[in-house]
Each structure stands twice: as structure tokens, then as C-alpha cells.
Design brief:
Elements (H helix, E strand, L loop, with lengths): L8 E6 L4 E6 L41 H11 L5 E2 L4 H11 L4 H10 E8 L5 E7 L5 E8 L7 H10 L2 E2 L4 E5 L7 H17 L28 E3 L2 E2 L22 E2 L3 H8 L13 H17 L5 E5 L5 E3 L7 H12 L4 H5 L10
Parallel strand pairs: 4-6, 7-11
Antiparallel strand pairs: 1-2, 3-4, 5-6, 8-12, 9-10, 12-13
Length: about 350
Amino acid sequence: MTARSKWSVVILVFAAAALFYWLKAGSSPSPKPAGALPEVRDLSRLEVYNFDPASSLAERITAIPADLLQHYRKMDGTTAYEAYQPSAADKALVLEYFALLPPVYRKVFEARCVGLYFVDSFMGNGITSWVAGPGGEVYFHITFNAVTLTKSLSEILTERERSCFKPGKTAITVEAGEKYRGFAYVLFHEATHGLDYALGLTPWADNEMPENLRPAAPLAGVAFRKYWAAYGTPVSSLDFSGRNNITFYGLGGGPKIPADEAAPLYAGFARTPFVSLYGSMSWAEDLSELVTMRLLTRKLAQPYRITLGGEGQPVVLEPLRAKGAAARADEILKLLDSVPAAALAALKRPDKVSE
């Protein structure tokens, strides 16, 4: 999940003579007077994290900063979020699962990942947020739901899928195996958002990203423009009835779809090359789901099946068997194995950055 849009979002624009920000909160932005000092939301600035690029990935698995935790509480309107201090065993699991990702992930994380945090009672499985470096580079940090460290892949993915629907007679389950913890899914998914932020794989990773932080040209070329008319709108031939009502985790006013109306929703979805309902929400989620589900099924050799049970015969879907889905996923994984050297060189580590 990329940064959620329940807050006022800072939009950053560079000009030759001045740097200024405006807040986007559903109304037209107010321009700043020429020469005015920039308004900077601290949590979008690399300096506030005391980031040490020479630190190991293990050292970046730490307690969430207090102000960031409070920010997420306000963003989601809850006081239930509590910082979770990862144990030595938790950190070992993170590193074990991280080693399953393609090599490019380590290169990107070493250069651009500010921190990996955990929160108890989090809405959703995780969130990846961008951070602006002093030279316009894009960094990121990831916050995970601590429960994903203990539940299985099947449990976590079933809970996610069910959160899209109001309760009913139709029972929705996802079979993804019991060998791995649900953290494998959330790490692969959120880590891919991190790559998108840092490398610019899609046209832009977050619809609320400042224009100057978006890539001049996406590394994936037209791989996503072929399927998406806009960030959150598929081309008309791939849209399907009910897609605009898809929500997860109780966010966005959801759930909006009765479980007993799941069958026609999935029937429309099954005609697309998307690998999950979640991936049908935007090209950023499409990217993360393509990579994640392909790694889970190929690298980890786990199943990925969605079953709609209830009255009558169960309906079983295997999204990666849909026309074009596996080929799209393989195309992206091939891209990740051949990221241009120039793009990786641009990720060079800066000196330690702090206020």
C-alpha cells in the first residue's frame, strides 16, 4: 500500500528561483508569494530521520519514530496503534524473507530505505511512504502490521480479501499455503512499492507524489500505460463492474460490496490480466501484486487460489492462470533482473543526513 490520502498532502515543486510547497486537501492550492520560504512537512524530509546510509539493513529494523506513529494514528483516526519493538527472532525472519527477493532489492534498500517499522493493531498489512532527499532523491520507509509476523500466508491473504466485502452467506478464502508467514506477502508487496519510489518503475508510484519527484520516464516503459488510462483507472476494455467500489481494511468508507455480490465482481475481474482485486485499484498496486504473487507461486512454490463458497458449487479462481497475467508478471521480474547500471549508479549512498 502506498501512502494513504486521508491527510493533507504536501506537493513539492522546484523552480529556478525558489522552492515552495502547497497542501492539497480537496481544494485548490494557494500559491506562495515569490521568494517565500518553503512549508515543509517534517515527515517528508530525509533530515528528520537521522538516516545513516552506512547502516546495515538489520540496523534499520527498529521501533517506529514516535512522531510517525502519531501521524499514522491521526491519518487513520484511531488511538489503537502501538509501536511494536521487533525481537531478534523477528529481525531474523525479516532478513530471511528479504533474501528471497531479487538482488536489485538489496541494492535499492541499502541506498534508499530509511527504516523498517512495525505497529500493532494497524489497519492493513503495511504502508510504504516516500521521503524527499536534499537533492530531490526519493527515499522511503515501510511500516508493517506486526500480526503478519505470526499468521500464515493463507490467513493474511484471506483476511485481506474478506475485508473487501460486507459479511454474507458467501465465504471467501485464499489458499496460499501454510509454510510461510504472512509477512512474506507484505514484505514482497511493500518492498516493491519501495523500488517503485526509488527507481521509478511505473509512471509514478503515488498519485500524490510531487511532480518533481516523479520519474521523467518510467523504467517499465509503456508496460503499465498499456493497461492503465490513468493512475487508478484501467483502460476501458479492462475495467469491470464494481471495481470502483473495491476497498480494503475498512479504509475508503468500506466495505461497500456485499459478500453475496462477490461472484459477479470476480467474474469481471477474471477477464483481466490483473492478479488480484487489490492490484486492480491502481498501476502502483498492480505492479506490487504482479511481482509479489509471482514470487510467492514461483520462488516460494506456494499455491494462489481464491474460493467463493456458500450455496451451490464453489467458484475457484487462479488469477495467475488468467490470460496475460503470468506473462505480465514475468515481464516485470525480467525487468527487475536487468535494471540499467545507470539507474543503479544514481542510487549512490549520500553522506549521513541529519538535522
